Amino acid sequence: MGGIEIHPSITQLHPDAVLESPCVLSVGLALSKFVDLGAFSYTQGGVWDFVSVGRYCSFATEISIGGHEHPTSWLSSSPFQYNPKMHGWDRVGPVPYGPERPRRHFKGLRQTMIGNDVWIGHRSIIRTGINIGDGAIVGAGSVVTRDVPPYAIVAGAPAKLIRFRFGDWTIRRLQALSWWRYAAWDLRDLDFADVEGTIDQIAERRARGGLAPWAPPRRSAAEIKAFTNLGPTIDEAKRFFGLAIPIEPP
Ligand SMILES: CC(C)(COP(=O)(O)OP(=O)(O)OC[C@H]1O[C@@H](n2cnc3c(N)ncnc32)[C@H](O)[C@@H]1OP(=O)(O)O)[C@@H](O)C(=O)NCCC(=O)NCCS
Q1: Residue list, ligand 1 pocket, CB within 6 Å
Q2: What is the distance in angstroms between the CA of the first residue and the CA of the last residue of the chain?
Q3: Which of 1, 13, 82, 240 is deepest in the core (most CB within 10 A)?
Q4: Average pLDDT over residues 73-101
């Protein structure tokens, strides 16, 4: 609907999840807390928790992002020690804390941040709280346990640096340009394989005022659900998602 595709199998989308058009949440993604997904990003299943994703990101299948940590140096690694509602066991018997020994808190979930133009390979695991920089690539089957710098290619378990995609100078130019601010249709007629030339041309288009940042309304999952339930027309949907723009050549 209107450039934001949420597969019907995704029933756990948090009402506060924020999505930018166009983007795709395809079949089989299990989501717990909230997920922000930037424009031109797509997912293909997996288990995700509390993650913020930039634009133009590509996710392969069966990716786990932000799985909760459990305590490793307490009596047990089990959440029964700090989660009173775990699996409804508080209805079966008293919780194991009280006035003399109040419940301790354990923070097993932190926000995971994924930049723009990131590609994550099949069956990767990204630990909670990790930051993955713009332009980075995570190889298939990796376990990412440390932050990944911009434009790094990392792979393996634990993931290690293979190389950077470009030299320092080009990486700095790409980050300064932040080309992901623009819509894909504003990046027409560029030779993407010639990175330096593409950077020059985008900078030149911008300098002559030929590029406006893509700024669609950021819609929450609750808003999208309420809107979709109204049975809107295609034109109404385009307006709601900010897609009713005339596209002129640069
Ligand atoms: C990470 C990746 C992009 C690297 O591609 P590349 O730059 O062509 O890398 P190379 O094949 O030159 O490999 C470089 C080194 O990294 C190693 N390597 C590459 N991918 C690896 C991976 N996923 N895990 C562990 N090591 C890996 C290679 O064995 C090689 O090691 P060596 O130098 O000791 O021989 C690619 O291997 C990959 O994993 N792609 C993801 C594919 C995928 O998941 N597709 C799903 C559809 S979206």
Answers
A1: 58, 60, 121-122, 137, 139-142, 153, 155-156, 162
A2: 27
A3: 240
A4: 90
